[in-house]
Amino acid sequence: MDSEHLVRMANEIGEFFETATEPDNIADEVRGHLLRYWAPSMRAALKDHLAGHPADSGLNPHVAAAVANLRDEPAGN
Amino acid sequence: MSRRHEADYGTPPVDSDRQVTLSIDGQQVTVPEGTSLMRAAAMVERDIPKLCATDSLEAWGSCRLCLVEIEGRRGYPASCTTPAEDGMVVRTHTPRLAQLRRNTMELTISDHPLDCLSCAANGDCELQDMAGVVGLREVRYAEHGQPCGANHFEGASRAPEDDSNPYFSYDAAKCIVCNRCVRACEEVQGSFALTITGRGFDSRVAAGANEAFIGSECVSCGACVQTCPTATLMEKSVIAHGQAERRVITTCAYCGVGCSFVAEAKGNEVVRMTPHKNGQANHGHACVKGRFAWGYATHPDRITTPMVRTTIDAPWRVVSWDEAIAHAASEFRRIQAQHGRSAVGGITSSRCTNEETYLVQKLVRAAFGNNNVDTCARVCHSPTGYGLGQTFGTSAGTQDFDSIDAADVIMVIGANPTEAHPVFGARLKRRIREGARLIVIDPRDIELVSAPHVRADFHLKLRPGTNVAVANALAHVIVAEGLLDEAYIAERCDDAAFRRWRDFIMQPENAPEASAAATGVAADTLRGAARLYARQGNSAIYYGLGVTEHAQGSTMVMAIANLAMATGNVGRRGVGVNPLRGQNNVQGSCDMGSFPHEFPGYRHVSDSTVRASFEDAWGVTLEAEPGLRIPNMFEAALDGSFRGLYLQGEDLAQSDPNTRHVEAALRAMECVVVQDIFLNETAKFAHVFLPGASFLEKNGTFTNAERRISMVRKVMPPLAGKEDWEVTQALANALGYPMNYTHPREIMDEIARLTPTFAGVSHARLDALGSLQWPCNDAAPDGTPTMHVGGFVRGKGRFMPTRYIPTTEKANRRFPLLLTTGRILSQYNVGAQTRRTANVAWHAEDTLEIHPHDAEERGIGDGDWVGIASRAGETVLRATVTPRMQPGVVYTTFHHPESGANVITTDNSDWATNCPEYKVTAVQVVRVGQPSQWQQRHRENDHQQRSLLPRRD
Ligand code: SF4
Ligand code: SF4
Ligand code: SF4
Ligand code: FES
Question: Residue B658: pLDDT above 80?
């Protein structure tokens, strides 16, 4: 997967939730969205990207927090 | 033609609280006040002879055949124009009336050719019928069987024929000037293309200003042809083949209106499609596609044998069904063995039936063992699913089409119903003529902005990509000016979410004055539109792909839901939020669990209770994680982790954005299985071709934009021997997952068992009731015309803050114009069907619409070849210079593959759903002399791929 594209898509999700929810919830909402709508392979690729580029992942802070929190848990409801 | 097999009460039904009772030929009858005597009489089976009256049109009163006697009144009033009154005593048949009718008939017939036996309408002609009914025995105005004096049907005075329309002819010699065609064009279709010219003996029907039909404003809907009581307006197919021997009620396979049709056939050959009078979506109306453009089903390009090949450059080899299916199955299993269970997937189509779609997703989930299933709705209405799901709790339009008759204000956003949903468009225009007000939000001057007797009160001609800013500004005005429906919000909506939304929307950046520069919509126009939408009464929103196909598509759907909730416009007749679905079964394919994260009925794959119910029924363990969406599949194909794809009825290579990217992904796959009726663009990259069946060749159901499930019925046997569900079933069996359905009705029964919103649906009930709108279950046994009555599906309606985020696709120095895309009436989607019909008479090629100012700046004239370049690619089209566009914005359709409209669209997409941003692409346009490189390559490739087809004699 093209990580640049994944980063852009994840940031766009983050941009929506930055207004749509309270600051404390943004990372959770983004994480929830990724779990519900992204295939595991895409989440894994994004997680690998973040692990490989902790300082310059290109992910917005809330999104980076969300991605860092992705474990192999199943999609919530 | 006429339609003698359907009851005709002569004049339309009337709605009234007051009833009147009268006596007709001694029978007591009670009818709503305002009902005509003719209709009242027909209700007690006293059919009165008539020619100019029919119950789809307002009475006209010109033929004088329907005279009656009323006690206490002098003369012989026309029953079609005389309203029934309390206590009236009416006689429909007396010797005097019989004489008068005979005289009238005689006069009419004296100017009509008497070639009944060889007339195309023989046996299906109301004039013939009435001559018989009134007992016409002689025509005294004729001598020796020859008429005397001037007439319209022989010799020098013969009226001309007009054959210019590809589907019907107009033979003025047979016209009885009953005016039905003129009224049909006005009242039903709203095109006002016909008039009666001349007076007295000279009067005739004329299209436009005495033009040929094809050159007039006529949109070829066929309403006039259908209502003509004689052979004057006549389908060419009936002239060529004669009348039908049998009739099958089915559903149009084109757009999301889902019109009900009577397919009229002789043997296995369709001779005419007539819209079904009792069709609950269309009430007897149709458009040029559904009524006329069905000839593709028997086009010589149809591929009717399975084929396989080793590589996409090798010639196709015709094989048996068994071999093709076994080959496909073994390839899928080989790929899974080598590259993992997730390396293959399937794509369903909005053109296929619910049963077929359900089966494909079942095959992917149960036989492939992953959730890599998606549908073409991904690229059109997936944001509707997300946006309405978040706010209202379910992904569906809130109303039935009939609801528009109760709407006072209609807001149309990013939709062009008169072109893309013509029968609904005609309905909408009629409602506007009746006095409803209209707001149009669209970058172009679509027809609704100004049509005969229709004018938008407000046209917000926004810049493409600024939908959310406009919707937010509307909401800002509604809140700031105290136009909220506070009581509704308090009762129906989540309070905390509402407060957060209200604070957000009141931020100064959402004021219309603040966003005007970005949107191009003047603040006072926007305020006027907001006040109109929010005023007391019923306001309804209808929207299309101009809302969803944006980077903020899902956000915009939520912004629309916010507007409707803020003004209390959800949950009753006349209001609501209505996505106009592009293809016939977009709604159904979404309902049937085609999305990678959802089982049928919009239930997430991670929901263990739901998953357990499917595991039980299907006898397998199911994956709990969402699968890949279409654009994700392409990306995965390019990185080598996705290598096999089963496509049913979907043409990704033409319909998906950034064609070069899509083609590269398809080339990278090892096994592409295409199931389609034609060798479509995607089939050029396929290894296995499984011939599909058109809607005329199979049984099943479609679900239209109003959630209405209607039957599709087989009119002729499948040309390739199998209905599409049988092919999927065979593939599942070959993959080692048993499926044993004997008829699609069993598939629907399984859907109903597993999907609570479909619990009450079955083919038997559809046969009995005609159609059903889901949810249909114990709580709503006869279906649900209006949703969210009394409360939202999710409980409390949820307002969502929807910040406007400009798309990254911005006009700049290199690409200074914004390209947006759309559809036109005569063509359908990628055009695979309509291009293979006479509809090309109206739209032989896609053109680029450009404003005169932008054209002049570039030295471009009307009809010039222009190159259109974006950062994704380049193509060449002819220019249409038109002030319908705004400066800075260009527009094209995507009905022809060689146009390559999607070569230029980018892979930007909606943040929530990856629905492509088709509606905004930054481009440059220049005059050029030759097709683009992509087009030249496409032409060569097209030629080469055709040469790889087996030769047919
Ligand atoms: S085909 Fe339709 S648009 Fe054309 S003249 Fe007849 S009613 Fe009017
Ligand atoms: S064309 Fe047909 S419908 Fe129209 S006025 Fe003549 S007879 Fe009547
Ligand atoms: S294309 Fe749409 S409007 Fe036209 S007949 Fe078919 S369903 Fe009706
Ligand atoms: S049917 Fe009443 S006047 Fe023609």
Answer: no
